[in-house]
Give the backbone structure.
Amino acid sequence: MPLVKYQRGDMVMGRWPGSNLFYEVRVLGYDTKYQLYTVIYKDGTELELKEQDIKSPAVFQSLSRSRSRSRSPGRRRSRSRSPARTTRRSSSRTAAAAATAAITESAPSSRRDTKLKDSLEVEPSPVQQTKTAENNSNNEHEKTEEKQKEENNTANKVNESKAAVEAEPAANQGRYNLRRRKDDGEAKQVEAKAQQLEEKDAKLAAAPAASVSTPLDFGGKIGAYFWLLFLPAWVLFLVLQVKRADPSLTNLPPPLPPLEDFWDAQALGFVVLWILFQALLYILPVGKLSEGMPLRSGEKLKYRTNGFFAIVVSAVAVAVAMHQGVDFTYIHSHFLQLAASTFLISVLLSVYLYVRSRYAAPEQLALGGSSGNVVYDFFKGHELNPRIKEFDLKFFCEMRPGLIGWCLINFAMALAEMKVQKLDAPSYSMILVNLFQLLYVVDGLWNEEAILTTMDLMHDGFGFMLAFGDLVWVPFTYTLQAYYLVSHPNPLSLPALAFIVTLKLVGFYIFRKSNSEKNNFRRNPSDPKLSHLKTIPTATGKSLIVSGWWGVVRHPNYLGDLLMALAWSLPCGFSHLLPWYYMIYFIILLVHRDSRDMSECRRKYGSAWDEYCRTVRYRIIPHVY
Protein backbone atom coordinates (compact mmCIF):
# COMPACT_ATOMS: atom_id res chain seq x y z
CA MET A 1 0.00 0.00 0.00
CA PRO A 2 1.53 3.36 -1.01
CA LEU A 3 2.57 5.79 1.69
CA VAL A 4 0.08 8.65 2.06
CA LYS A 5 2.06 11.87 2.36
CA TYR A 6 -0.84 14.15 3.33
CA GLN A 7 -3.57 13.23 5.82
CA ARG A 8 -7.24 14.18 5.93
CA GLY A 9 -7.64 17.69 7.37
CA ASP A 10 -4.15 18.89 6.34
CA MET A 11 -3.96 22.43 4.90
CA VAL A 12 -1.71 22.34 1.83
CA MET A 13 -1.18 24.21 -1.45
CA GLY A 14 -2.97 22.67 -4.47
CA ARG A 15 -2.43 23.44 -8.15
CA TRP A 16 -5.40 25.08 -9.90
CA PRO A 17 -6.49 23.17 -13.08
CA GLY A 18 -5.00 24.47 -16.31
CA SER A 19 -2.27 26.54 -14.68
CA ASN A 20 0.75 26.42 -12.37
CA LEU A 21 -0.92 28.59 -9.73
CA PHE A 22 -1.23 27.12 -6.25
CA TYR A 23 -3.97 27.89 -3.72
CA GLU A 24 -4.61 26.85 -0.14
CA VAL A 25 -6.76 23.71 0.09
CA ARG A 26 -7.87 21.22 2.71
CA VAL A 27 -7.25 17.50 2.17
CA LEU A 28 -10.52 15.51 2.38
CA GLY A 29 -9.23 12.04 1.60
CA TYR A 30 -7.03 9.78 -0.51
CA ASP A 31 -8.08 7.24 -3.14
CA THR A 32 -5.56 4.39 -2.93
CA LYS A 33 -6.79 2.81 -6.16
CA TYR A 34 -6.26 5.87 -8.38
CA GLN A 35 -3.66 7.48 -6.07
CA LEU A 36 -5.52 10.79 -6.04
CA TYR A 37 -6.10 13.25 -3.20
CA THR A 38 -9.58 14.77 -2.83
CA VAL A 39 -9.20 18.42 -1.80
CA ILE A 40 -11.54 21.38 -1.29
CA TYR A 41 -10.70 24.99 -2.11
CA LYS A 42 -11.83 28.02 -0.12
CA ASP A 43 -14.79 28.63 -2.48
CA GLY A 44 -16.13 25.09 -2.02
CA THR A 45 -14.66 23.62 -5.21
CA GLU A 46 -13.72 19.96 -4.83
CA LEU A 47 -11.07 18.39 -7.05
CA GLU A 48 -8.96 15.25 -7.17
CA LEU A 49 -5.25 16.03 -7.48
CA LYS A 50 -2.14 13.97 -7.97
CA GLU A 51 0.59 14.14 -5.32
CA GLN A 52 2.87 16.17 -7.61
CA ASP A 53 0.13 18.83 -7.82
CA ILE A 54 0.24 19.35 -4.03
CA LYS A 55 2.97 21.17 -2.13
CA SER A 56 3.62 21.92 1.50
CA PRO A 57 2.80 25.49 2.66
CA ALA A 58 6.39 25.70 3.96
CA VAL A 59 7.65 25.99 0.37
CA PHE A 60 5.59 29.12 -0.23
CA GLN A 61 6.33 30.59 3.21
CA SER A 62 10.05 30.20 2.51
CA LEU A 63 9.58 31.91 -0.84
CA SER A 64 7.70 34.78 0.80
CA ARG A 65 10.41 35.29 3.44
CA SER A 66 13.15 35.22 0.82
CA ARG A 67 11.50 38.03 -1.14
CA SER A 68 11.37 40.26 1.93
CA ARG A 69 15.13 40.17 2.48
CA SER A 70 17.41 42.92 1.31
CA ARG A 71 19.56 42.56 -1.81
CA SER A 72 22.41 40.07 -1.94
CA PRO A 73 25.74 40.89 -0.23
CA GLY A 74 27.31 41.50 -3.61
CA ARG A 75 24.77 44.25 -4.31
CA ARG A 76 25.19 45.84 -0.87
CA ARG A 77 28.90 46.34 -1.61
CA SER A 78 27.96 48.88 -4.25
CA ARG A 79 29.85 52.06 -3.27
CA SER A 80 27.35 54.45 -4.87
CA ARG A 81 24.20 53.47 -2.90
CA SER A 82 22.95 55.78 -0.16
CA PRO A 83 21.40 54.40 3.06
CA ALA A 84 18.10 56.22 2.41
CA ARG A 85 17.59 54.65 -1.02
CA THR A 86 18.38 51.20 0.37
CA THR A 87 15.69 51.56 3.06
CA ARG A 88 13.02 52.65 0.57
CA ARG A 89 13.63 49.75 -1.77
CA SER A 90 13.69 47.20 1.07
CA SER A 91 10.33 48.48 2.36
CA SER A 92 8.78 48.28 -1.08
CA ARG A 93 10.02 44.73 -1.60
CA THR A 94 8.60 43.62 1.78
CA ALA A 95 5.11 44.92 0.94
CA ALA A 96 5.27 43.36 -2.51
CA ALA A 97 6.22 39.97 -1.07
CA ALA A 98 3.33 40.05 1.40
CA ALA A 99 0.88 40.95 -1.33
CA THR A 100 2.18 38.21 -3.64
CA ALA A 101 1.88 35.61 -0.87
CA ALA A 102 -1.72 36.69 -0.21
CA ILE A 103 -2.61 36.14 -3.86
CA THR A 104 -0.91 32.74 -3.99
CA GLU A 105 -2.78 31.45 -0.94
CA SER A 106 -6.30 32.71 -1.77
CA ALA A 107 -9.07 30.80 -3.58
CA PRO A 108 -9.32 31.56 -7.31
CA SER A 109 -13.03 32.34 -7.47
CA SER A 110 -13.28 34.67 -4.49
CA ARG A 111 -14.65 38.08 -5.58
CA ARG A 112 -12.72 39.79 -2.82
CA ASP A 113 -9.45 38.21 -3.88
CA THR A 114 -10.01 39.06 -7.55
CA LYS A 115 -10.32 42.75 -6.73
CA LEU A 116 -7.07 42.64 -4.79
CA LYS A 117 -5.31 40.83 -7.63
CA ASP A 118 -6.40 43.47 -10.08
CA SER A 119 -5.12 46.27 -7.80
CA LEU A 120 -1.59 44.88 -7.43
CA GLU A 121 1.29 45.59 -9.76
CA VAL A 122 4.37 43.75 -8.59
CA GLU A 123 6.72 42.11 -11.07
CA PRO A 124 8.62 39.27 -9.35
CA SER A 125 11.16 39.26 -12.16
CA PRO A 126 14.92 39.06 -11.51
CA VAL A 127 15.53 40.70 -14.87
CA GLN A 128 13.67 43.89 -13.94
CA GLN A 129 15.33 43.99 -10.51
CA THR A 130 18.71 43.86 -12.27
CA LYS A 131 17.72 46.75 -14.54
CA THR A 132 16.92 48.93 -11.53
CA ALA A 133 20.37 48.45 -9.99
CA GLU A 134 22.54 51.58 -9.87
CA ASN A 135 25.23 51.97 -12.51
CA ASN A 136 27.70 54.22 -10.63
CA SER A 137 30.56 51.72 -10.61
CA ASN A 138 33.58 52.83 -12.60
CA ASN A 139 34.73 49.28 -13.25
CA GLU A 140 32.68 47.64 -16.05
CA HIS A 141 34.03 44.19 -15.17
CA GLU A 142 32.94 44.64 -11.51
CA LYS A 143 29.48 45.73 -12.68
CA THR A 144 29.06 42.62 -14.87
CA GLU A 145 30.24 40.36 -12.06
CA GLU A 146 27.81 42.06 -9.65
CA LYS A 147 24.85 41.46 -11.97
CA GLN A 148 25.81 37.84 -12.40
CA LYS A 149 25.95 37.31 -8.62
CA GLU A 150 22.53 38.85 -8.09
CA GLU A 151 20.91 36.84 -10.86
CA ASN A 152 22.31 33.63 -9.39
CA ASN A 153 21.15 34.54 -5.86
CA THR A 154 17.64 35.58 -6.83
CA ALA A 155 16.93 32.98 -9.51
CA ASN A 156 16.06 30.23 -7.03
CA LYS A 157 14.02 32.57 -4.82
CA VAL A 158 11.62 33.73 -7.51
CA ASN A 159 11.76 30.82 -9.93
CA GLU A 160 8.48 29.26 -8.81
CA SER A 161 6.56 32.55 -8.84
CA LYS A 162 7.92 33.44 -12.27
CA ALA A 163 7.00 30.00 -13.63
CA ALA A 164 3.44 30.43 -12.35
CA VAL A 165 3.03 33.71 -14.20
CA GLU A 166 4.63 32.52 -17.44
CA ALA A 167 2.65 29.25 -17.46
CA GLU A 168 -0.71 31.02 -17.32
CA PRO A 169 -2.48 31.17 -20.72
CA ALA A 170 -2.03 34.40 -22.65
CA ALA A 171 -5.69 35.33 -22.18
CA ASN A 172 -5.23 35.37 -18.41
CA GLN A 173 -1.83 37.00 -18.20
CA GLY A 174 -3.28 40.45 -17.62
CA ARG A 175 -5.21 39.29 -14.62
CA TYR A 176 -2.29 37.66 -12.82
CA ASN A 177 0.55 39.89 -14.12
CA LEU A 178 2.36 41.58 -11.21
CA ARG A 179 4.39 44.81 -11.57
CA ARG A 180 6.24 46.78 -8.95
CA ARG A 181 4.62 49.89 -7.46
CA LYS A 182 7.01 52.72 -6.74
CA ASP A 183 4.79 54.45 -4.24
CA ASP A 184 5.62 53.35 -0.67
CA GLY A 185 2.21 54.49 0.65
CA GLU A 186 0.35 52.23 -1.77
CA ALA A 187 2.65 49.35 -0.86
CA LYS A 188 1.71 49.78 2.81
CA GLN A 189 -2.01 49.75 1.92
CA VAL A 190 -1.49 46.55 -0.05
CA GLU A 191 0.32 44.99 2.88
CA ALA A 192 -2.57 45.89 5.19
CA LYS A 193 -5.11 44.37 2.80
CA ALA A 194 -3.04 41.22 2.53
CA GLN A 195 -2.98 40.94 6.33
CA GLN A 196 -6.79 41.23 6.47
CA LEU A 197 -7.11 38.54 3.81
CA GLU A 198 -4.86 36.19 5.75
CA GLU A 199 -6.97 36.65 8.90
CA LYS A 200 -10.26 35.98 7.03
CA ASP A 201 -8.82 33.00 5.20
CA ALA A 202 -7.56 31.55 8.48
CA LYS A 203 -11.12 31.68 9.87
CA LEU A 204 -12.47 29.97 6.75
CA ALA A 205 -9.79 27.29 6.95
CA ALA A 206 -10.74 26.57 10.55
CA ALA A 207 -14.37 25.86 9.55
CA PRO A 208 -15.34 22.25 8.71
CA ALA A 209 -14.97 21.46 5.05
CA ALA A 210 -18.54 20.18 4.78
CA SER A 211 -19.97 23.49 6.02
CA VAL A 212 -19.19 25.03 2.63
CA SER A 213 -22.24 24.52 0.43
CA THR A 214 -22.33 24.36 -3.35
CA PRO A 215 -24.58 26.79 -5.29
CA LEU A 216 -28.27 26.27 -4.52
CA ASP A 217 -30.50 24.44 -7.02
CA PHE A 218 -34.25 24.50 -7.71
CA GLY A 219 -34.69 28.21 -7.06
CA GLY A 220 -32.69 28.31 -3.84
CA LYS A 221 -34.31 28.80 -0.45
CA ILE A 222 -37.52 30.36 -1.83
CA GLY A 223 -37.74 27.58 -4.41
CA ALA A 224 -37.61 24.97 -1.65
CA TYR A 225 -40.82 26.37 -0.12
CA PHE A 226 -42.49 26.33 -3.53
CA TRP A 227 -41.56 22.73 -4.39
CA LEU A 228 -42.55 21.42 -0.97
CA LEU A 229 -46.09 22.68 -1.64
CA PHE A 230 -46.30 22.25 -5.41
CA LEU A 231 -45.09 18.65 -5.81
CA PRO A 232 -47.73 16.99 -3.55
CA ALA A 233 -50.44 19.30 -4.98
CA TRP A 234 -49.48 18.36 -8.55
CA VAL A 235 -49.58 14.62 -7.84
CA LEU A 236 -53.00 15.07 -6.23
CA PHE A 237 -54.20 16.98 -9.30
CA LEU A 238 -53.02 14.23 -11.67
CA VAL A 239 -54.53 11.42 -9.58
CA LEU A 240 -57.91 13.17 -9.42
CA GLN A 241 -57.80 14.21 -13.06
CA VAL A 242 -57.06 10.77 -14.53
CA LYS A 243 -60.21 9.36 -12.91
CA ARG A 244 -62.47 11.79 -14.77
CA ALA A 245 -64.38 11.01 -17.95
CA ASP A 246 -62.50 13.83 -19.69
CA PRO A 247 -58.97 13.69 -18.20
CA SER A 248 -57.61 16.79 -19.90
CA LEU A 249 -54.73 18.75 -18.41
CA THR A 250 -56.35 21.91 -19.77
CA ASN A 251 -59.44 21.43 -17.59
CA LEU A 252 -59.83 23.19 -14.29
CA PRO A 253 -58.77 21.14 -11.25
CA PRO A 254 -61.54 18.82 -10.04
CA PRO A 255 -63.19 19.55 -6.69
CA LEU A 256 -61.39 18.09 -3.69
CA PRO A 257 -63.06 14.99 -2.25
CA PRO A 258 -63.94 14.85 1.48
CA LEU A 259 -60.99 14.33 3.80
CA GLU A 260 -62.16 10.83 4.76
CA ASP A 261 -61.68 9.78 1.12
CA PHE A 262 -57.92 10.27 1.51
CA TRP A 263 -57.60 7.86 4.41
CA ASP A 264 -57.86 4.10 4.32
CA ALA A 265 -56.19 2.02 7.02
CA GLN A 266 -56.05 -1.01 4.75
CA ALA A 267 -54.28 1.03 2.06
CA LEU A 268 -51.72 2.27 4.60
CA GLY A 269 -51.16 -1.29 5.80
CA PHE A 270 -50.66 -2.47 2.23
CA VAL A 271 -48.01 0.21 1.58
CA VAL A 272 -46.16 -0.52 4.85
CA LEU A 273 -46.23 -4.25 4.14
CA TRP A 274 -44.89 -3.67 0.62
CA ILE A 275 -41.96 -1.53 1.85
CA LEU A 276 -41.09 -4.03 4.61
CA PHE A 277 -41.20 -6.89 2.10
CA GLN A 278 -38.79 -5.07 -0.22
CA ALA A 279 -36.51 -4.20 2.74
CA LEU A 280 -36.37 -7.90 3.65
CA LEU A 281 -35.34 -8.83 0.10
CA TYR A 282 -32.70 -6.08 0.17
CA ILE A 283 -30.94 -7.33 3.32
CA LEU A 284 -30.89 -10.99 2.30
CA PRO A 285 -27.30 -12.16 1.65
CA VAL A 286 -28.09 -12.76 -2.01
CA GLY A 287 -26.41 -11.04 -4.92
CA LYS A 288 -23.24 -9.01 -5.32
CA LEU A 289 -21.68 -6.61 -2.84
CA SER A 290 -20.78 -3.64 -5.06
CA GLU A 291 -18.36 -0.84 -4.22
CA GLY A 292 -19.54 2.75 -4.57
CA MET A 293 -17.54 5.72 -5.85
CA PRO A 294 -15.01 7.42 -3.51
CA LEU A 295 -16.49 9.87 -1.01
CA ARG A 296 -14.77 13.09 0.07
CA SER A 297 -13.14 11.15 2.89
CA GLY A 298 -11.76 8.63 0.40
CA GLU A 299 -14.06 5.90 1.76
CA LYS A 300 -16.03 3.63 -0.61
CA LEU A 301 -19.33 2.28 0.66
CA LYS A 302 -20.59 -1.24 -0.03
CA TYR A 303 -24.02 -1.86 -1.57
CA ARG A 304 -26.04 -5.07 -1.88
CA THR A 305 -27.03 -5.02 -5.57
CA ASN A 306 -29.67 -7.76 -5.69
CA GLY A 307 -32.46 -5.75 -7.32
CA PHE A 308 -33.11 -8.30 -10.07
CA PHE A 309 -33.50 -10.98 -7.43
CA ALA A 310 -35.99 -8.70 -5.62
CA ILE A 311 -38.24 -8.16 -8.65
CA VAL A 312 -38.24 -11.89 -9.52
CA VAL A 313 -39.26 -12.83 -5.95
CA SER A 314 -41.86 -10.03 -5.99
CA ALA A 315 -43.37 -11.41 -9.22
CA VAL A 316 -43.57 -14.87 -7.70
CA ALA A 317 -45.21 -13.44 -4.57
CA VAL A 318 -47.83 -11.62 -6.69
CA ALA A 319 -48.57 -14.81 -8.64
CA VAL A 320 -49.02 -16.77 -5.40
CA ALA A 321 -51.28 -14.04 -3.99
CA MET A 322 -53.46 -14.10 -7.14
CA HIS A 323 -53.72 -17.86 -6.88
CA GLN A 324 -54.94 -17.38 -3.32
CA GLY A 325 -57.67 -15.04 -4.53
CA VAL A 326 -56.17 -11.60 -3.84
CA ASP A 327 -57.91 -8.98 -6.04
CA PHE A 328 -55.21 -6.60 -7.31
CA THR A 329 -57.79 -4.34 -8.97
CA TYR A 330 -58.00 -2.90 -5.43
CA ILE A 331 -55.00 -0.77 -6.48
CA HIS A 332 -57.05 0.86 -9.25
CA SER A 333 -60.10 1.52 -7.08
CA HIS A 334 -58.03 2.83 -4.12
CA PHE A 335 -55.38 4.70 -6.09
CA LEU A 336 -55.96 7.98 -4.21
CA GLN A 337 -55.78 6.35 -0.77
CA LEU A 338 -52.61 4.46 -1.67
CA ALA A 339 -51.00 7.67 -2.93
CA ALA A 340 -51.99 9.54 0.26
CA SER A 341 -50.59 6.74 2.47
CA THR A 342 -47.31 6.68 0.57
CA PHE A 343 -47.08 10.48 0.81
CA LEU A 344 -47.50 10.27 4.61
CA ILE A 345 -44.67 7.73 4.82
CA SER A 346 -42.39 9.87 2.63
CA VAL A 347 -42.95 12.91 4.88
CA LEU A 348 -42.22 10.93 8.06
CA LEU A 349 -39.10 9.49 6.44
CA SER A 350 -37.94 12.98 5.39
CA VAL A 351 -38.36 14.32 8.93
CA TYR A 352 -36.36 11.39 10.30
CA LEU A 353 -33.62 11.94 7.70
CA TYR A 354 -33.24 15.62 8.55
CA VAL A 355 -33.23 15.07 12.34
CA ARG A 356 -30.55 12.37 12.11
CA SER A 357 -28.48 14.51 9.73
CA ARG A 358 -28.09 17.13 12.49
CA TYR A 359 -25.93 14.62 14.35
CA ALA A 360 -23.94 13.38 11.35
CA ALA A 361 -20.21 14.04 11.00
CA PRO A 362 -19.29 16.93 8.65
CA GLU A 363 -17.71 14.63 6.06
CA GLN A 364 -21.00 12.68 5.85
CA LEU A 365 -23.04 15.70 4.75
CA ALA A 366 -23.97 16.59 1.17
CA LEU A 367 -22.41 19.86 0.00
CA GLY A 368 -25.53 20.65 -2.02
CA GLY A 369 -27.73 20.31 1.07
CA SER A 370 -25.60 22.26 3.55
CA SER A 371 -26.93 25.77 2.97
CA GLY A 372 -27.71 26.42 6.62
CA ASN A 373 -31.40 27.04 5.77
CA VAL A 374 -33.59 24.41 7.46
CA VAL A 375 -36.27 24.27 4.75
CA TYR A 376 -33.84 24.06 1.85
CA ASP A 377 -31.67 21.41 3.52
CA PHE A 378 -34.80 19.43 4.49
CA PHE A 379 -35.93 19.51 0.85
CA LYS A 380 -32.57 18.86 -0.85
CA GLY A 381 -31.18 16.41 1.69
CA HIS A 382 -28.63 17.27 4.37
CA GLU A 383 -26.87 13.90 4.72
CA LEU A 384 -25.33 12.26 1.66
CA ASN A 385 -25.59 8.55 2.49
CA PRO A 386 -27.78 7.97 5.58
CA ARG A 387 -27.43 4.39 6.80
CA ILE A 388 -28.81 2.23 9.57
CA LYS A 389 -25.78 0.01 10.07
CA GLU A 390 -25.27 -1.44 6.55
CA PHE A 391 -28.80 -0.61 5.34
CA ASP A 392 -28.42 2.31 2.90
CA LEU A 393 -31.71 4.24 2.97
CA LYS A 394 -31.14 6.28 -0.19
CA PHE A 395 -30.02 3.37 -2.34
CA PHE A 396 -32.93 1.22 -1.11
CA CYS A 397 -35.61 3.84 -1.82
CA GLU A 398 -34.07 4.73 -5.17
CA MET A 399 -34.30 1.23 -6.63
CA ARG A 400 -36.80 -0.92 -4.71
CA PRO A 401 -40.29 -0.04 -3.34
CA GLY A 402 -41.20 2.67 -5.86
CA LEU A 403 -39.55 1.17 -8.93
CA ILE A 404 -40.87 -2.37 -8.45
CA GLY A 405 -44.17 -0.89 -7.21
CA TRP A 406 -44.44 0.89 -10.58
CA CYS A 407 -44.60 -2.52 -12.31
CA LEU A 408 -47.09 -3.87 -9.78
CA ILE A 409 -49.45 -0.91 -10.33
CA ASN A 410 -49.19 -1.30 -14.11
CA PHE A 411 -50.11 -4.98 -13.79
CA ALA A 412 -53.09 -4.07 -11.60
CA MET A 413 -54.24 -1.57 -14.26
CA ALA A 414 -54.16 -4.31 -16.92
CA LEU A 415 -56.40 -6.44 -14.72
CA ALA A 416 -58.68 -3.45 -14.12
CA GLU A 417 -58.93 -2.81 -17.90
CA MET A 418 -60.09 -6.37 -18.46
CA LYS A 419 -62.66 -5.96 -15.66
CA VAL A 420 -63.98 -2.53 -16.71
CA GLN A 421 -64.11 -3.20 -20.47
CA LYS A 422 -65.07 -6.87 -20.03
CA LEU A 423 -62.12 -8.20 -22.04
CA ASP A 424 -60.62 -11.67 -22.07
CA ALA A 425 -57.10 -10.18 -22.36
CA PRO A 426 -55.54 -6.73 -22.05
CA SER A 427 -55.53 -4.51 -25.15
CA TYR A 428 -52.44 -4.18 -27.34
CA SER A 429 -51.93 -0.65 -26.04
CA MET A 430 -52.01 -1.84 -22.42
CA ILE A 431 -49.67 -4.74 -23.20
CA LEU A 432 -47.15 -2.39 -24.86
CA VAL A 433 -47.17 0.06 -21.94
CA ASN A 434 -46.75 -2.78 -19.44
CA LEU A 435 -43.97 -4.54 -21.38
CA PHE A 436 -42.06 -1.35 -22.26
CA GLN A 437 -42.00 -0.07 -18.69
CA LEU A 438 -41.33 -3.53 -17.25
CA LEU A 439 -38.31 -3.85 -19.54
CA TYR A 440 -37.07 -0.45 -18.38
CA VAL A 441 -37.33 -1.41 -14.69
CA VAL A 442 -35.88 -4.91 -15.12
CA ASP A 443 -32.95 -3.48 -17.08
CA GLY A 444 -32.31 -0.94 -14.33
CA LEU A 445 -32.34 -3.63 -11.64
CA TRP A 446 -30.22 -6.02 -13.71
CA ASN A 447 -27.63 -3.24 -14.11
CA GLU A 448 -28.25 -1.88 -10.61
CA GLU A 449 -24.55 -1.28 -10.03
CA ALA A 450 -24.58 1.47 -12.69
CA ILE A 451 -26.68 3.75 -10.47
CA LEU A 452 -23.71 4.08 -8.09
CA THR A 453 -22.06 6.46 -10.59
CA THR A 454 -25.12 8.71 -11.05
CA MET A 455 -25.68 12.25 -9.74
CA ASP A 456 -28.34 11.10 -7.25
CA LEU A 457 -26.01 8.68 -5.47
CA MET A 458 -22.76 10.64 -5.76
CA HIS A 459 -23.82 14.24 -5.07
CA ASP A 460 -27.44 14.66 -3.91
CA GLY A 461 -28.28 14.30 -0.25
CA PHE A 462 -31.24 12.19 0.85
CA GLY A 463 -34.12 14.41 1.87
CA PHE A 464 -37.70 15.16 0.88
CA MET A 465 -36.85 15.64 -2.80
CA LEU A 466 -35.60 12.08 -3.31
CA ALA A 467 -37.83 10.41 -0.69
CA PHE A 468 -40.98 11.88 -2.23
CA GLY A 469 -39.71 11.29 -5.74
CA ASP A 470 -38.80 7.64 -5.14
CA LEU A 471 -41.85 6.61 -3.11
CA VAL A 472 -44.65 8.82 -4.47
CA TRP A 473 -43.72 10.51 -7.75
CA VAL A 474 -42.43 7.43 -9.59
CA PRO A 475 -45.17 4.87 -8.81
CA PHE A 476 -48.13 7.30 -8.94
CA THR A 477 -47.25 9.48 -11.95
CA TYR A 478 -45.28 7.10 -14.17
CA THR A 479 -48.32 4.77 -14.18
CA LEU A 480 -50.75 7.38 -15.56
CA GLN A 481 -50.59 5.89 -19.08
CA ALA A 482 -51.75 2.49 -17.83
CA TYR A 483 -54.42 4.11 -15.62
CA TYR A 484 -55.63 6.19 -18.59
CA LEU A 485 -56.04 3.12 -20.81
CA VAL A 486 -58.35 1.44 -18.26
CA SER A 487 -61.22 3.74 -19.25
CA HIS A 488 -59.93 5.21 -22.54
CA PRO A 489 -59.08 2.40 -24.98
CA ASN A 490 -56.98 3.16 -28.05
CA PRO A 491 -56.91 0.40 -30.71
CA LEU A 492 -53.63 0.09 -32.66
CA SER A 493 -53.10 -0.98 -36.26
CA LEU A 494 -50.30 -3.40 -37.09
CA PRO A 495 -48.11 -0.71 -38.81
CA ALA A 496 -48.51 1.57 -35.78
CA LEU A 497 -47.72 -1.34 -33.50
CA ALA A 498 -44.54 -2.18 -35.45
CA PHE A 499 -43.40 1.46 -35.48
CA ILE A 500 -43.87 1.88 -31.73
CA VAL A 501 -42.01 -1.37 -30.96
CA THR A 502 -39.11 -0.34 -33.25
CA LEU A 503 -38.91 3.10 -31.64
CA LYS A 504 -38.78 1.51 -28.18
CA LEU A 505 -36.02 -0.93 -29.15
CA VAL A 506 -33.89 1.82 -30.74
CA GLY A 507 -34.27 4.03 -27.67
CA PHE A 508 -33.50 1.15 -25.33
CA TYR A 509 -30.38 0.19 -27.31
CA ILE A 510 -28.99 3.75 -27.21
CA PHE A 511 -29.85 4.07 -23.51
CA ARG A 512 -28.25 0.79 -22.45
CA LYS A 513 -25.12 0.94 -24.62
CA SER A 514 -24.26 4.53 -23.68
CA ASN A 515 -24.89 3.97 -19.96
CA SER A 516 -22.75 0.82 -19.97
CA GLU A 517 -19.96 2.63 -21.80
CA LYS A 518 -19.98 5.47 -19.26
CA ASN A 519 -20.21 3.23 -16.20
CA ASN A 520 -17.42 0.90 -17.35
CA PHE A 521 -15.14 3.84 -18.14
CA ARG A 522 -15.75 5.50 -14.77
CA ARG A 523 -14.93 2.30 -12.92
CA ASN A 524 -11.89 1.24 -14.96
CA PRO A 525 -10.59 3.76 -17.54
CA SER A 526 -7.67 1.45 -18.36
CA ASP A 527 -9.93 -1.44 -19.42
CA PRO A 528 -8.53 -2.82 -22.73
CA LYS A 529 -12.10 -3.09 -24.06
CA LEU A 530 -12.34 0.72 -23.88
CA SER A 531 -8.96 1.44 -25.49
CA HIS A 532 -10.67 2.60 -28.71
CA LEU A 533 -12.30 5.55 -26.93
CA LYS A 534 -10.79 9.01 -27.43
CA THR A 535 -10.57 11.14 -24.30
CA ILE A 536 -9.63 14.61 -23.04
CA PRO A 537 -7.47 14.56 -19.87
CA THR A 538 -8.40 16.87 -16.98
CA ALA A 539 -6.48 18.32 -14.05
CA THR A 540 -8.36 15.98 -11.68
CA GLY A 541 -6.63 12.94 -13.17
CA LYS A 542 -9.85 11.76 -14.84
CA SER A 543 -10.67 11.92 -18.57
CA LEU A 544 -13.71 12.93 -20.61
CA ILE A 545 -14.92 10.62 -23.40
CA VAL A 546 -15.20 12.33 -26.80
CA SER A 547 -15.87 9.29 -28.99
CA GLY A 548 -18.31 6.40 -29.11
CA TRP A 549 -21.81 7.32 -28.01
CA TRP A 550 -20.46 10.17 -25.87
CA GLY A 551 -18.85 11.74 -28.93
CA VAL A 552 -22.22 12.11 -30.68
CA VAL A 553 -23.98 14.10 -27.93
CA ARG A 554 -23.05 14.92 -24.35
CA HIS A 555 -25.92 12.84 -22.95
CA PRO A 556 -26.74 9.95 -25.31
CA ASN A 557 -28.45 8.14 -22.40
CA TYR A 558 -30.92 11.06 -22.18
CA LEU A 559 -31.61 10.69 -25.91
CA GLY A 560 -32.41 7.01 -25.44
CA ASP A 561 -34.62 7.89 -22.47
CA LEU A 562 -36.63 10.38 -24.53
CA LEU A 563 -37.17 7.89 -27.38
CA MET A 564 -38.45 5.32 -24.89
CA ALA A 565 -40.75 7.90 -23.26
CA LEU A 566 -42.18 8.66 -26.71
CA ALA A 567 -42.83 4.94 -27.25
CA TRP A 568 -44.64 4.76 -23.89
CA SER A 569 -46.97 7.63 -24.80
CA LEU A 570 -47.87 6.73 -28.40
CA PRO A 571 -50.05 3.70 -27.45
CA CYS A 572 -52.39 6.12 -25.64
CA GLY A 573 -53.17 8.08 -28.82
CA PHE A 574 -53.68 11.83 -29.16
CA SER A 575 -57.17 12.34 -27.72
CA HIS A 576 -55.87 13.78 -24.44
CA LEU A 577 -52.72 15.47 -23.23
CA LEU A 578 -52.61 13.71 -19.85
CA PRO A 579 -51.02 10.42 -21.01
CA TRP A 580 -48.33 12.58 -22.64
CA TYR A 581 -47.56 14.10 -19.28
CA TYR A 582 -44.60 11.76 -18.74
CA MET A 583 -43.04 12.81 -22.05
CA ILE A 584 -43.46 16.52 -21.27
CA TYR A 585 -42.19 16.12 -17.71
CA PHE A 586 -39.21 14.07 -18.81
CA ILE A 587 -38.09 16.69 -21.33
CA ILE A 588 -38.15 19.34 -18.57
CA LEU A 589 -36.39 17.00 -16.12
CA LEU A 590 -33.58 16.05 -18.51
CA VAL A 591 -32.96 19.62 -19.69
CA HIS A 592 -32.73 20.77 -16.06
CA ARG A 593 -30.48 17.84 -15.15
CA ASP A 594 -28.27 18.65 -18.14
CA SER A 595 -27.97 22.23 -16.87
CA ARG A 596 -26.99 21.02 -13.38
CA ASP A 597 -24.48 18.61 -14.90
CA MET A 598 -22.96 21.37 -17.05
CA SER A 599 -22.43 23.63 -14.02
CA GLU A 600 -20.94 20.83 -11.93
CA CYS A 601 -18.56 19.66 -14.68
CA ARG A 602 -17.41 23.20 -15.55
CA ARG A 603 -16.63 23.79 -11.86
CA LYS A 604 -14.84 20.46 -11.56
CA TYR A 605 -12.93 20.20 -14.85
CA GLY A 606 -12.36 23.87 -15.77
CA SER A 607 -10.82 24.48 -19.19
CA ALA A 608 -10.92 20.76 -20.06
CA TRP A 609 -14.72 20.90 -19.95
CA ASP A 610 -14.75 23.91 -22.28
CA GLU A 611 -12.62 21.94 -24.73
CA TYR A 612 -15.01 19.00 -24.39
CA CYS A 613 -18.01 21.23 -25.19
CA ARG A 614 -16.25 22.53 -28.31
CA THR A 615 -15.58 18.94 -29.41
CA VAL A 616 -19.05 17.55 -28.61
CA ARG A 617 -21.35 20.41 -29.61
CA TYR A 618 -24.82 18.99 -29.02
CA ARG A 619 -26.24 18.23 -25.58
CA ILE A 620 -29.02 15.65 -26.11
CA ILE A 621 -30.42 15.65 -29.68
CA PRO A 622 -27.91 15.81 -32.60
CA HIS A 623 -28.22 19.01 -34.68
CA VAL A 624 -31.22 20.13 -32.58
CA TYR A 625 -30.17 20.61 -28.94
Summary: The chain has 24 helices and eleven strands.
